[in-house]
Amino acid sequence: MDVRRLELLRELAERGSITEVARATHRTPSAVSQQLRVLEREAGLPLTEKAGRGIVLTDAGRALARSAADVAVAIEHATALWDEFRNDPTGEVSLATFPTGGQMLLPGVMRRLEAVGGLTLHCSDRDPESDDFPALTSDFDIVLAHSASSAAANWQASEIAAVKLMTEPLDIALPPGHPLAEKEELLPEDLIGENWIGVPWGYPFERTILDISQAAGSPMNVVQRFGDTRVTEAFVAAGLGIAILPCYTAGGAYRSEIVLRNLHGIVSERHIFALMRPDRAERLAVRTVVDALRAEAAAVVAANVHRNPVPRERG
Fold first, then answer.
1. Which domains does the chain have, with CATH numbers?
2. How far apart are the first and last CA of the chain?
3. What are the strands, taking DSSP E only, across the chain?
4. If you ran DSSP here, which 8-state letter would residue 300 be given?
C-alpha cells in the first residue's frame, strides 16, 4: 500500500470529511476520493461507508488508519536518525501559539534558532478552548497550549505527544487605587463582591475563577468576558474590575497602571505544553525547535523567580 494514500486515510480519520482532507492536503475532493478508492483496492476490504451525506471509516478503515499513524512515526524516526547522522536539522517547522505564550517565548526562541542554519520557523497565533488545542496539531507541527489543570492531564494521557514547558503563576490584577492593592497577598474571601473581567467559557483562567468562588463560598460577579488579555488589562487599568492574569506577561502597555498580587488558599497557575502529532515529534527540525522552547521557558521562569521569589501554592 502506498504510504501517501495511507496518510490520506489517516487524515480522514482525524478530520472526518473528504472536504476537510482535500483542504488540508491541497487537493480536490474528487482526487482524495480517487486515492482512497485505490487504497481500498490495495487493502482488499471496504475502508469507508456512506453516512448521511458524507462517509465514515469502517472498522477495517479505522484499524488501517491507526497503522498509518504507526507508519508515519516510523518514517519520521528513520528520517530523524539520518538527519542526526548528517547533523542537519534543516527544514520548515510550523507553530501555533496562544497570544501570551507567543509574547513570552517566541522572540527568545527565534534568537536561539538563528544559529541553526537552514531551519525556518513559521508562527501563527491561535487561542481556542483548552480542550481544542490538540486538534490544531493536524495543521501545525507544534502547538503551544495552556491549561489550568485537567486538560493538561488529558493531553499527557492522549495519543498526542505533549512536552511540558513550564508552569506559570496566575495573579490577581487590580488598579493601583484599589483597596486590595494595599495587601501583599490575597485570599479567596478577599475577592467576594468584586466585579470580574473574565474570559470566555472553556478558557483556562475560567477554572481559576470557579476555584476562587468555591473556596470563598460565594459566586464571583463576572461583568465582562474577553479572550484577549490586552483588553482585560485595559479594563482593569480603567478601574472597571479585577481579573486573573498570567504573572510573567501581565501588564504590557499598562504595567504602571496595574497591580499584581499573589493569590493564596487555592492553586492558581497554568501549565504550558508543546503538543505534536507523534510522527512530527520525531523530526529533528521539530525536536530542535522544542529544545529551544524548553530552554527559553526555563530562562523565563528563572528570570521571574529571581525578581519575585515569593513562594506560591502548587498543585
1. 3-82 (1.10.10.10), 91-159+272-307 (3.40.190.10), 168-269 (3.40.190.10)
2. 48
3. 48-51, 54-57, 91-97, 119-125, 142-147, 161-174, 185-186, 195-198, 221-225, 243-246, 259-263, 269-276
4. H
CA–CA dist 85, 37 (Å, integer): 38
Greater pLDDT, 118 or 232:
232
Separation of alpha carbons 13 and 56, rounded Å = 8
What is the reported pTM? Answer: 0.73
Which residue, 19, 61, 11, is CA-closest to 279?
11
Question: HSE-up of 45 (CA within 13 Å, CB side)?
Answer: 10
What average pLDDT does range 140-163 have in this prediction? 85
- Residue owning grid cell 519520521: 76
Q: What is the pLDDT of residue 110?
A: 96
